[in-house]
Amino acid sequence: MSRSQKSSSTSAALLYRPIGLAGSMLAGFITSKVFDQVWKRASASKDADPPGPLQSEYPMKEIVAAAALQGAIFAVVRTLVQRGGARLYERATGNWPGS
């Protein structure tokens, strides 16, 4: 039986919520660190912090590029952390936490 065919109970989904929340927090932390390192390598200035949307000294294209890069990194890291957490939960309980 594949994962998509496994049934998921409401109690499994509820029990997984604290794990999912902790995973999301971990993903946010990891994303921040990864994005800072990627931005330092991609930026023309090696000491530059990523631009924020309200920083007028940066051109709009640089602000949008930074936001797009950060969003892409966050999506990938969050997916990896959530999927890993779900697999660990399944191994521990025998239930897949997804709905």
Write a structural description.
The protein has one domain. Helix content is 68%, strand content 0%. Helix 1 packs antiparallel against helix 2. The mean pLDDT is 83.
Summary tags:
elongated, mainly alpha, 99 residues
**Shape verdict:** elongated
Output the structural class. Answer: mainly alpha
Poorly predicted residue ranges: none
What is the domain tally?
1
**Could you report the average pLDDT, rounded to the nearest whole number?**
83
DSSP strand count: 0
Number of helices: 2
Q: Which H/E pattern describes the elements?
A: HH
Strand content: under 5%
Would you kindly provide a brief summary of this structure?
Helix content is 68%, strand content 0%.
Topology:
Elements: H1 10-42, H2 60-93
Helix pairs in contact: 1-2
